[in-house]
UniProtKB/TrEMBL annotation:
<dbReference type="GO" id="GO:0045820">
    <property type="term" value="P:negative regulation of glycolytic process"/>
</dbReference>
<dbReference type="GO" id="GO:0005829">
    <property type="term" value="C:cytosol"/>
</dbReference>
<feature type="binding site">
    <location>
        <begin position="81"/>
        <end position="84"/>
    </location>
    <ligand>
        <name>substrate</name>
    </ligand>
</feature>
<feature type="binding site">
    <location>
        <begin position="168"/>
        <end position="169"/>
    </location>
    <ligand>
        <name>substrate</name>
    </ligand>
</feature>
<feature type="active site" description="Tele-phosphohistidine intermediate">
    <location>
        <position position="4"/>
    </location>
</feature>
<feature type="active site" description="Proton donor/acceptor">
    <location>
        <position position="81"/>
    </location>
</feature>
<dbReference type="InterPro" id="IPR029033">
    <property type="entry name" value="His_PPase_superfam"/>
</dbReference>
<protein>
    <submittedName>
        <fullName>Phosphoglycerate mutase</fullName>
    </submittedName>
</protein>
<dbReference type="InterPro" id="IPR051695">
    <property type="entry name" value="Phosphoglycerate_Mutase"/>
</dbReference>
<feature type="site" description="Transition state stabilizer">
    <location>
        <position position="167"/>
    </location>
</feature>
<dbReference type="InterPro" id="IPR013078">
    <property type="entry name" value="His_Pase_superF_clade-1"/>
</dbReference>
<feature type="binding site">
    <location>
        <begin position="3"/>
        <end position="10"/>
    </location>
    <ligand>
        <name>substrate</name>
    </ligand>
</feature>
<dbReference type="GO" id="GO:0004331">
    <property type="term" value="F:fructose-2,6-bisphosphate 2-phosphatase activity"/>
</dbReference>
<keyword id="KW-0378">Hydrolase</keyword>
<dbReference type="Pfam" id="PF00300">
    <property type="entry name" value="His_Phos_1"/>
</dbReference>
<dbReference type="GO" id="GO:0043456">
    <property type="term" value="P:regulation of pentose-phosphate shunt"/>
</dbReference>
<feature type="binding site">
    <location>
        <position position="53"/>
    </location>
    <ligand>
        <name>substrate</name>
    </ligand>
</feature>
Amino acid sequence: MVRHGQTYFNIYNKLQGWSNSPLTDKGIQNAVDTGNKLANIKFTAAYCSDTTRAMDTANMILAKNTVSDLDTPVVSKFFREEFYGYFEGTDMDQAWYLAGAPHGMPTFRSIVEQESIGKAKDLLKAADPFHDAEDNAEYWQRLDQGLALIKDNSEIHDGDNVLLVSHGNTLLSLVECFGNGQFDVTERPANGSITKLHFHDDQIEVTAFNVQ
């Protein structure tokens, strides 16, 4: 799994779930650098969310790959970032303050340290005046459909590699769920960073996180 390259909303510290902003020059370089790191990894399949920041990153990584027979990724809304509802485009620190401060947890870090990333989703939905933001159950119902796309792909066999380009909170959510507490999930992984998940039957294990 790769987090997409840096975007303008990343620079501006804005929540960017289903909303989208373009890759910066640095973000394009993130994708190129990661593509160079993965250039000799043979991928049987590739997936990404349907945001342009993820699609652009995935396409640039595949363009650098010298050993895979893949031109484009499978694009799916199931791999989108969490939907932040009313808080889309809001300053991240302000949004998490509004969600957590009434419960004595004024920052994203404090929510995760005292509760979980799943709880952060629930608190943000509760704070959303329209209640459009995804809560934890809604989020996983969608993401699980994306994971099923990979698991049910008959062209993927034991030992094969799959590329998935996704998002910061999605990576954190997967690592929290399948990382067995080995990794720090209080801060977002770097743009272009690599996280490795091992699929075995119905089990998923995170074996590396935020490799840069």
